[in-house]
Amino acid sequence: METKPQAAPESGSLEDVLALKRAKVSELRARGVEPYPSRSVRTHLCAQAAALGAPLGQGEHSQQSVTCAGRLVAYRDMGKTIFGHLQDLSGKVQLYFKKDALPEAAFQLIKKDVHAGDFLGVQGALFKTKTGEPTIAVSSVTMLAKALRPMPEKWHGLKDVETRYRHRHLDLMASPEVLQNFAKRSKIISTVRKTFDALGYLEVETPILLSQAGGASARPFQTHHNALDADMVMRIATELYLKRLIIGGFDKVYEIGRVFRNEGIDTRHNPEFTMLECYEAYSDYEGMAQLFERVVAECAEAIGVSKTTFGGVEIDLKPPFRRLYLPEAWKTYCGEPIENILEGKGFNRAGLLKLAEKVGAPAGEKTPSAKIFERVFDARILEHLDAMTFVFDHPTAITPLAKLKPGTQSLVERFEGYAARQELSNAYTELNDPQDQRDRLQEQARQRQEGDAEADILDEDFVQAMEAGMPPMGGMGIGIDRLVMILTGQTSIRDVILFPTLKPGEQAA
After folding, report:
1. Residues with Cβ < 8 Å from 360, sequence gap 6 or more?
2. Same domain, residue pair 121 and 200
């Protein structure tokens, strides 16, 4: 289908195009046609109209009338007849404008005043063309919104990545598959909520602006509250407030919301992202593993997939997921027992540095031990985590909020859920011994003083809340953006966040 062959309004500089379109708006109003009316009517989505016409035989007409509204995305003028395509979120339907079937003013409106990109309301009966396409024989047409700016690249899609992310509305207009991916994101989040609600969890909300940021190892964004004359930070996690609610008497709580971490930007990281955190009294990390499997399975079913392809790798989304225990994986892939790098509740730094050199992981005297551990893990173990995989039992030294694994001081009951070498979830059997918690957070504070800017903080208010008595519980965080990436096969986080963080730049398109 060709775009409308009226080159003048779409050619020349952007300023010329805008001037011509604005003049057209004035001309329409002078003729008594309002290009931006206050009301519109729609009885059927475009895809519904097309589906109603599908059973008709070629050339067969229906008596059923439909009223659709959407953007005109294609146009072919054949003289006394004009074909076009109308598009909304559901899809497209073909339009047929015939001179003899429309009032003269309506036909001339389509022929002379309407361009690709304009929003129209159309009414008419369905029929199927000789080529077999369900079509609306338009008997009434209304201009709903006149587009002043030209459409992106004649509907062949945006090639410039910066334009796609900075001007998302153009990306959505030009690429229906992008629109559908974000519709899937909404369905996934809705399904997550339904899953937790059905299990008896209560959705709650916790503060975003805090006096200090805890619950994760990350740098916060800093701001200032003028009325209080107080420096504040934006939350990096919701954990410590949600645990307070379990202490207070709730059994199951969850929150889906934005968290903010002052970190780098790449295909897996955006400084503001959507996180789900949940906590369940009398559960543990095994219960959280079962919960994660259920969430993934129900989200996959909601968008109609059982497998996904990510970066050329096919991933089966059906539970049960693979289980990998870190001490065993460490010995297999790093060539030595994990005990060589652990010492009590901390790291054996000499052993860690020696292993980093052995596997080629960058590490220096000032590199925090937690960062060295992460680099060794990425160098030797991450490549084996393409399938949906739980990695169980992590070092105490990097997990100050989890309960010790029975029989050892060096490991805690924690798993991370992976797929396509990306961390999707993180879960603990939560630590509920307030003295142990205080000691471990004090150690984190010491590491921060020694230069680890991402070490956790000692939140005295939280520890005092624990001293009121905290039941045993399981807790889990799920990165919603990465979950959507896996389920939809998108390899960049920017393709699942409608408005990703970008460097300041020219805003006008």
Report:
1. 379
2. no
